[in-house]
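ESCALATION

Customer reports they have been waiting on this structure for their group meeting. Please prioritize. Original submission:
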Amino acid sequence: MPAAPPADAVAPLMRGLAVLRALGDAGGRMDLSDLVRATGLARSTADRVAATLSRMGYVRLRGHEVRLAPRLMELGNAYLAALSLPGRLGPLAERLADELDESVSLAVPDRDGIRFVHQTTRRRAMSLTFRIGDLLPYERTAAGAVFAAGWAGDAWDGRSGRRGEDGGTGGEPSDGEPADEAAFRLRAAHCREAGWAVDDQLIEPGLVAIAVPVHDPGGSVVCAVSVVSHTSRHTADSLGPAVLPLLRETVAAMEEELRRDRPATGGHAPNGLAHWTTASKQELGAEFVESLARGLTVITAFGEGRPELPLAAVAEATGLARATARRALITLEHLGYVTSEDSVFRLTPLVLSLGCPALSGTTLPDIAVPHMAELVRRVHDSASLAVLDGDDIRYTARVATERIMSVNITIGTRLPAYAASMGRVLLAGLPAGEREARLARTDRRPLTSHTVTDPARLLGLLGRVRDEGFALVDEELEEGLRSLAVPVRDHTGRTVAALNVAMHTARRTADECLAEVLPPLRATAAAIESDLHIAGRFARVPEV
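Update from on-call: job pushed to the front of the queue and completed.
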């Protein structure tokens, strides 16, 4: 039976976390009636929780459906940033994946298994679908045997009790113990001697993996690095000789990185969230559960250079009263999202369960479309998102408006970049030399009597687009078509896509486009970028 909550626990925070976990377990979306059944909450309570999470940007409401939103990943990001391992070791894992042409993972131990904190996968017809935050059982993974190699007797006994509570098999070292548990003990013992562990199709038929521990300067195992392959490429016996030399070199480099001074734990300026929650409560009234919102903001107090914090630092970072922050921390600790020692608090890997697995496969179009729909409602013209594909642009998302005469383009449509507003934005985002090379090799035929084809003039236009941050194209792609586009940039500042609004020239003059459409277009791009930066901080966001 779960332990009773402490007297000071914040019940609305517990309900909100239950809703987020239920949504995550369901793949990121649920009907409100199903959510009520999954959590046991009253419908009115579920409605208020959903409205609060929507206000925070953590879910989106569409009729009776609730969907997790990319902004929710800021909670998991707080844990990953505080952990520091993905940021510090991730580039080395990516280099190893490139050298081996195999998928590479970083995992940490959690109470009931291992959780992935970094993934670098290979794009193949049969590709891996492990996600950041996924929880896998210890006994069915190579990384699990790595962590179990260091367990003492009490750790095995504690595992036995938990498995019994969950209705699973016990783990006592007896003649009658289950075969999988006995085999797991043997794999852990082998890892203790050899320094590596193997998974021979335990997690899924066809998958084989080998894992090696990474130690911190004190000698403790902080994570496991796994190389995962398919039996069409390797057997469990052939994988070790093929990857262990480079894997061990990478682990040595990782441990050297961990010996370097990590960012010092410093102060954290108040983020103003307490004031925001107060304002939201005043605006929305009973529909906004302020104690839920404030409890979730406590998680965001942690981050890079702030892996552990005392109560006073949490209160300062969030702008909450110490008593409010304390009750939130007590609740989070009761539920397993926070641990404490000597009055210092630290996030646990369980925070990753709050939407990270469900959202880690989010694509740029997934992020953009809800914002584009709001833009279309404001300007009453169609909006599109495109990426550069060779010398063309390729449409990856579109939200159309309802008109008798409208711009008819479907996802996947390709258009020449030099003559399209989105193409010019994307070309302008390239280094100068690459811009010139692309224009030089492109067949720049006139599509209308207005199409600019002269390379020198086009380069001048692209320079202006780069400086002004938008492109306005009048009837160069098609007679009667006017289009305005702006860039969408990732967290490094690289232009990864372009967003536009297109219309018939009779709808607005060029000056009216700049006055009426450009401001909301830029605001929409900024909203997309904000979500993209959160979703892409520790996970790759596919552009299509």
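Sent to customer with the following note: The mean pLDDT is 90.
Escalation resolved.
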